[in-house]
Task: inverse folding
């Protein structure tokens, strides 16, 4: 089942203390949690930091973030529509709050509701093939239509293809740097499109932080952390996408891999993931069947039809007989029913609705239907 969001709400003073603590030297997410658990509050932990550092053997304690610096960061974020949220607050992705090194404060922009939806990560090669880009677009679109938010890293190649395909349904960009330091810079417009439509962006880094090489693996753990599972579309043997897959495994997330030609080095990493036990997928239905038990509810891909007109109230008896005759206990695609029956999509939809209401039809993922036994 999906984790239930909590009802935590930090006061303004608590938020400043939390930000001061996580922005102080040598305090990461795990250390932050240990300090809070031990001393009961960020305020108390801040008072003990110098003594703890001295007891640890340093003669010069690290920098402790000041209250004014924290307040300025919060205000600067508000001016660009950025909220610094704690686990359990609305807009903080619920699944991310469950990982061991969840950010104590997460910078969130965009539509907060999108962060609360079930998410699927899609990542892959920056130097992607045309086939890889097409697959990423198709599966991102299909999963978006099925109600999933698509999360990726705003990188070139597979990431940007997935983001663009999910603009209308909802997509979340996970940033390696601060919200005002977009990488790569040419994706600034893509991020703007995401934020102006049904999307969002998240980062644990402070404003002004330009991403460095070591920041990208940290970002990758957030991509997998927010998601039910991660799809690796294309990845060479030393690809950063494989780091995302490793984090997904460690976090108990599903890892999906798209098979590729053994002659293409861009598929070597994904093919290797499949050998190691990743779920081989060729479409959105494969992903949905794997995550349905986690969500505890059925998910159906929407039916794409050529005819968007109203349902026909009275299909002809010959049309009805022909459509029913094409159905059986084995699932068949609705598009195939339209083609094989020689009738319109509207007529097929009407007959299927009649059968469903009569308890004679079963719907499957991927727009497939069958007669019940």
Result:
């Amino acid at each position: 089942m999906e984790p239930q969001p909590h009802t935590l709400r930090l006061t303004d003073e608590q938020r400043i203390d939390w930000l001061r603590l996580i922005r102080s030297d040598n305090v990461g997410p795990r250390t932050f949690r240990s300090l809070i658990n031990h001393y009961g509050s960020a305020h108390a932990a801040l008072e003990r930091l110098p003594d703890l550092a001295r007891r640890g053997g340093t003669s010069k304690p690290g920098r402790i973030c000041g209250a004014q610096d924290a307040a300025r960061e919060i205000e600067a974020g508000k001016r660009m529509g950025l909220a610094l949220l704690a686990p359990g607050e609305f807009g903080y992705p619920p699944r991310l709050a469950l990982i061991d090194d969840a950010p104590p404060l997460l910078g969130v922009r965009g539509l907060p509701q999108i962060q609360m939806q079930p998410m699927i990560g899609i990542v892959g090669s920056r130097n992607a093939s045309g086939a890889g880009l097409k697959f990423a677009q198709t599966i991102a679109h299909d999963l978006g239509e099925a109600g999933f938010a698509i999360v990726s890293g705003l990188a070139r190649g597979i990431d940007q293809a997935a983001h663009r395909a999910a603009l209308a349904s909802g997509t979340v960009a996970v940033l390696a740097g601060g919200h005002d330091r977009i990488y790569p810079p040419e994706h600034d417009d893509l991020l703007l499109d995401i934020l102006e439509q049904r999307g969002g962006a998240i980062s644990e880094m402070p404003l002004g932080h330009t991403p460095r090489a070591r920041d990208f693996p940290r970002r990758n753990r957030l991509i997998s952390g927010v998601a039910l599972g991660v799809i690796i579309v294309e990845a060479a043997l030393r690809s950063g996408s494989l780091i995302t897959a490793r984090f997904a495994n460690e976090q108990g997330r599903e890892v999906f891999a798209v098979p590729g030609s053994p002659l293409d080095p861009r598929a070597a990493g994904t093919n290797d993931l499949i050998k190691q036990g990743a779920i081989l997928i060729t479409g959105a239905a494969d992903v949905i069947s794997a995550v349905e038990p986690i969500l505890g509810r059925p998910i159906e891909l929407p039916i794409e039809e050529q005819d968007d007109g109203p349902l026909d109230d009275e299909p002809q008896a010959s049309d009805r007989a022909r459509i029913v005759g094409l159905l059986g206990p084995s699932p068949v695609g609705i598009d195939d029913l339209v083609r094989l029956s020689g009738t319109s999509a509207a007529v097929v939809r009407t007959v299927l609705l009649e059968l469903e209401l009569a308890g004679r039809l079963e719907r499957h993922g991927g727009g497939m239907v069958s007669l019940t036994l």
